[in-house]
Design goal:
The structure is a homodimer.
Chain A lengths: L5 E7 L4 H13 L5 E7 L2 H8 L8 H18 L9 H8 L2 H13 L4 H13 L10 H10 L3 H16 L7 E6 L2 E6 L4 H8 L16
Parallel strand pairs in A: 1-2
Antiparallel strand pairs in A: 1-3, 3-4
Helix pairs in contact in A: 2-8, 5-6, 5-8
Chain lengths: 214, 226
């Protein structure tokens, strides 16, 4: 048997467009690299508050840049991401508390569904191409009931605090555990560096599909 | 004769560590890709002021992250970059006005020296933790880059002239017009389009836009394009 897979924690919030990009690239590589990808639903609003940071979109030129950057990355990363018509309303007013509590509940009860449901939520906010994630209406209802329980609320709080302890001031945050070391990488643009640290091959953001590792 | 090279403008300030990383990667690719690299000495302090942005190092967790990020990138990009002992004094007190005016003068009078002199200034501040604000510091860097003492002194005398001051101002304003809120900013001109990319971590995306091959931040050395 080969070396043990290295754990990669991905702290993300569906309110964060760059989190979606990290997510898709890491999902592509989870069956190529010797890694164990642990998705960690977190609350970006909580991270901003705890770190004293502010959403970049509040600075006009950053908001402008975000729009063009996302457009270019859509093509390069082949993720169908588009800015919503009312970006500010989405980012600053509506927020993502219910969505991230929902994903926390999914992670607690049906972790095998977490990837698909996360993707579906991103599709709804950040794309036009939303479709159903395959959860039964009953399952979804049951989970919706759970999102205000102390268990779920606390779990989301703990995960968000864990990201803060790793030094997060925003999302996405990827934490690589390897050879007794821990590396925290911020942003969706540290994937090639991550490959370098893991001693794995970087084949760009859209690697050729390979057979799942046995 | 093949297609015309695409112009890439690199707006940078030696005060900016990520500018150095962009600079080195683009210098490596300038003889591999079909590009014409135009170095544009700019003032990051002016860009911050104009855009309403603040230096990231002012937020404690960003300063912390910067330290670990730079350490990892040193290895990955093979650039000998190290944080100075007193990061805040370097970034927030001493600044880079004289250094960037000097590079502006170099660009006006000896543009063929701009790459080497820029590198020597970065090596001082971001590799050996040496000063770049005093006249003697700048002269030493220029001489290390291969300039004669006379040439260097001559350029140093010009840094307070309206010509040099205005040129630095114009270049900084140009970056702002492209939408800069920080540095480095790479502007690619191609097929009648203009793409502004921020940061040292958009190089693979740049390759994609140019239709060029990305071979990582340390591409195998190739013969200079004829």
């Amino acid at each position: 048997m080969g070396p043990l897979p290295r754990t990669l924690e991905l702290f993300y919030d569906v309110l964060s467009p760059y989190s979606w990009l990290s997510f898709e690239v890491l999902c592509r590589y989870q069956n190529i690299w010797n890694i164990n990808l642990r998705l960690q639903p977190s609350l970006i609003a909580g991270i901003m508050k705890d770190s004293g940071n502010k959403p970049p979109a509040l600075l006009p030129r950053k908001a402008q840049y975000l729009a063009s950057d996302i457009n270019l990355l859509r093509q390069h990363l082949q993720v169908p991401i588009q800015l919503p018509k009312d970006l500010f309303s989405v980012l600053l007013e509506k927020g993502s508390l219910s969505a991230m509590r929902f994903l926390t509940a999914v992670n607690l009860e049906h972790p095998e569904m977490l990837e698909k449901v996360s993707r579906e939520l991103w599709m709804r906010i950040w794309s036009r191409a939303a479709k159903k994630a395959g959860m039964s209406a009953e399952q979804a209802r049951g989970l919706l009931e759970k999102i205000s329980t102390p268990t779920v609320k606390n779990k989301l709080k703990e995960t968000t605090e864990a990201a803060c302890k790793y030094g997060a001031f925003g999302l996405p945050v990827t934490v690589a555990h390897m050879d007794g070391q821990t590396h925290m990488l911020f942003g969706s643009d540290r994937m090639e560096l991550l490959a370098y640290l893991l001693g794995e091959k970087w084949m760009g953001p859209v690697p050729p599909a390979v057979n799942a590792r046995l």
